[in-house]
Specification:
Strand 6, helix 8 and strand 7 form a beta-alpha-beta unit. With 269 residues, the chain is of the alpha/beta class. It has one domain (55-267): Rossmann fold. Strands 1-7-6-2-3 form a 5-stranded parallel β-sheet, with helices on both faces. 38% of the residues lie in helices and 13% in strands.
Length: 269
């Protein structure tokens, strides 16, 4: 039997889908008129394509000068001991118009945004040889209290759309909700300190006890919309490791740009 919360969530998502069909479509990135041409205008598509082509560190996802990138990571992440993941794949830096599409998914629960972002992220993942070895996609879980506050579970929506695309491309993986969030904490967006971000999510996640998921020896990819300090992905990866996952990757739509990071336009030079 469905809970009232999940039933309301399904009704809300159905309403948003009907609204997308019933009203003229605007670009998810800039709100320009696009009719039925896929939900994104040519200018935003071109801008995201250019952002996706900028070099970045395969370990932490930061934009970087090509000569500063090694198979083991960049200068910055090689000094950060918390990375439990082998590689991180992204679409681009957290800048417009990608930022607007991510926010539309996160705070408005727009299904169309999840589908468009999954197209870009699947393309980025399929360029990596390890994608074909994945057993599971694990979206970053949302606490029930946060789920009630938001119009949708953005990481789950993204991961579901991503699973569909990767399976159509021949990947033999499946979506899993093997990790749950059992501790509620303030949103990471309210915190600017790197240290406080790590403290804020420490031990907030745990294995989902029902239905049980066998992670022993599995290759898992954590899915989220945004990577900022890596604190959330680090905590989720700890749970996966303790449960027996052998290899862990991360796939995110965007990587935040912090002071000291190489900007996307200069990385492409």
């Amino acid at each position: 039997m469905r809970t009232p919360v999940s039933t309301l969530g399904l009704l809300a998502r159905a309403g948003r889908t009907l609204l997308d069909v019933a009203v003229p479509q605007l670009c998810v990135g800039c709100q320009a008129w696009v009719g039925d041409s896929g939900g994104i205008c040519g200018a935003c598509r071109e801008a995201i394509g250019a952002a996706a082509a900028t070099p970045y560190c395969p370990r932490c996802g930061r934009s970087a000068q090509p000569l500063s990138i090694t198979p083991d990571g960049c200068r910055r992440c090689m000094s950060e001991p918390f990375w439990n993941i082998v590689e991180a794949v992204r679409v681009g830096p957290y800048e417009e118009p990608l930022r607007a599409i991510v926010l539309g998914l996160k705070y408005r629960g727009l299904e169309r945004n999840a589908e468009i972002l999954a197209d870009w992220l699947a393309e980025a993942m399929l360029a990596r040889p390890w994608t074909g070895t994945l057993d599971l996609l694990a979206p970053v879980p949302m606490h029930l209290r946060r789920r009630v506050q938001r119009p949708g579970n953005h990481a789950l929506m993204l991961a579901a759309a991503l699973e569909s695309r990767l399976r159509r491309a021949g990947c033999r993986l499946r979506l899993t909700r093997a990790v749950r969030r059992h501790v509620y904490a303030p949103s990471q967006t309210t915190l600017t300190s790197r240290t406080r971000r790590f403290e804020n999510v420490r031990e907030c996640f745990a294995p989902r006890w029902w239905p049980p998921v066998n992670l022993r020896g599995k290759t898992v990819c954590i899915v989220d919309n945004l990577l900022t300090t890596g604190a959330t992905i680090h905590e989720v990866s700890k749970v996966l490791r303790r449960a027996g996952a052998a290899t862990i990757y991360a796939a995110v739509v965007a990587r935040s740009v912090a002071p000291g990071d190489v900007q996307a336009h200069s990385a492409a030079v």
